[in-house]
Amino acid sequence: MTKTRSHLLAALAWAVVALSLLPIGWMLLSSLRHASDIAAGEQLSSSLALRWENYRDLWVNVDFFNYFRNSLVVCGLATVISTACALCAAYALARFRFRGSHAASLAITVTQVIPGMLFFLPLYMLYRNLGESWGVQMLDTYRGLIFLYVALFTPASIWIMRGFFVAIPRELEDAAVMDGCSRFGAFVRIVLPISAPGIIATATFVFLLAWDELFFAWVLTSSPDVQTIPVGIRLFINQFQHRYDLMMAAGAVSTLPVLLAFFAGQRYFIKGLAAGAVK
Amino acid sequence: MAMRKKRFDAFPYLLLLPAALLMLAVNLTPIVQGFTMSLLKLNQFTLGQYLDAPFVGLDNYRRVLFDADNPLRHGLGLALRNTALFTLTVSVLAIGIGLAVALLMNRDFAGKGIARTLLLLPWIVPSYVVGTLWGFMWQRDVGIVNVVLVDWLHLLSERPFWLLGSNSFWAIVIPTVWRAWPVMMLIFLAALQSIPEEPYEAATIDGVSRWKQFLHITLPLLKPVIVIQLMFQIIDNVYSYNIVSMMFGQGAGYPGEWADLLMPMLTRQSFNYWLFGQGAAVSFITMTLMLVFVGAWLKAFRRSMTGDD
């Protein structure tokens, strides 16, 4: 292959990168403009100073921090609990053949084809009845949202985690059990430490999914003490249709935590994603 | 682990228990109750009784499918058409672009690793942010799309309304593809890197063109990945909700006859008209169709997915 051709293709690759990042750049730029400049269509004018106050406004005047905190609490806890449930279930499915293991695998596959959203009303009624008949408040509480997210995202996490467990040779656990370790002990002390990459990948995956959930957060919560970021943004659009400056600032701020989570888990996550998909 | 002879072993069941209970509560029970609901007359007067509401048999199904005056049916036809077109367009574009860029990235050039990471960024942006961001970009007067197309490139002589009429179909397709293709690229890139170089070397010696090499070596080897990713894309896109509902006002609003998809339509009409029994009937029909589709897909491509053919 000629050198020119190779340079051209490299240039093309970078052009694709630049093109695909333009909308994100546009979001950041608009988040630093005055609403009136955006309305006048002048947000590209280079004479304008960057308005970092927009981010302060978002924090102080719109109380975005409230939604931000709720999202962190709900998605953070959902990630921890869901990953833990998925670890146990995936280990059972990867290591043991038992009566019902096929049915469990099938049920997990089926839940991937039928999202919880398709049957939102039974879930809503379940939550309402738990509150009215049993005194367990699930609507408009952290625990209601966390429980739902854990349940929604556990099946897919089991699938990812299972792939990691299958790749681990079972001789290690056998040796530990021979040495007098209980099987659960062997799972916790031997298998989990060497599965750290898989656990990080699974947790990153759950966090990204939970952070992106809009519908149930919208239906199941009604007070600002519980509502998460997507609900906050939706309410904001309702109220201030033309404050694109703040909307874009909110978008940038809500991208930050998932971006950090992604970079933290990137090494394992990308590998897991690629491996899980190719297999 | 030593084989125990037919003794009941509780350990795997205990490990599976938490996940099984969760799935029972949030996935399986609602499906059964959803089916029951689809046989009941559930409106604002009977919702309080919930599962004790009057039984109407298959009437909800009849009204959803055949009753011309029914608001839910009216929306359903358009939403189904849009969802089918949307799913097909987005899935094919996401996979096509993902594969093309993966081929472009599967070579050595300066900063390759950074480029790969940067390409994933659109996928990191939460979909509700994608909806608001592109909703802003599509604005007729202040949106950047019209600034570029009309003011800079002069491709169009007047500013189109992107969020109205049939343009709104593309207004939801493009952001969805923008967010979906990076992952496809990543997956194809991993698959490309697992292909050995020998067949290409042999083909080059035989004077086979690069395009023919792609058609006869690369594509067949990628077929298992394409088949499974296409299926996941189709499932994802059929249930698409966030981008449409954030782009068009508060989501309770009507996105117009070219941008209304199944899930936004279903949730909106159920709440607006209190047609929860009929909504459940639509959910059940959708579920059945999707299960049949996935079952048929897996059966048809089983051999190519396990790499036996």
Give an overview of the whole structure.
The complex is a heterodimer of chains A (about 280) and B (about 300). By secondary structure, chain A is mainly alpha-helical. Chain A has a single domain (about 50-280), classed as MetI-like (MetI-like fold). Chain A contains 13 helices and no strands. The longest helix of chain A has about 35 residues, at about 245-280. The radius of gyration of chain A is 23 Å and the shape is globular. By secondary structure, chain B is mostly helical. Helices cover about 70% and strands about 0% of the residues of chain B.
What is the CATH superfamily classification of chain A? MetI-like
Shape of chain B: globular
Q: Output the CATH homologous superfamily of chain B.
A: MetI-like
CATH architecture of chain B: Orthogonal Bundle
Count of separate DSSP helical elements of chain A:
13
What is the approximate shape of chain A?
Answer: globular
Number of domains of chain A: 1
Oligomer designation: heterodimer
Q: Give the strand tally of chain B.
A: 0
SS element count, helices of chain B = 12
Briefly note the structural class of the backbone of chain B: mainly alpha
Percent strand of chain B: under 5%
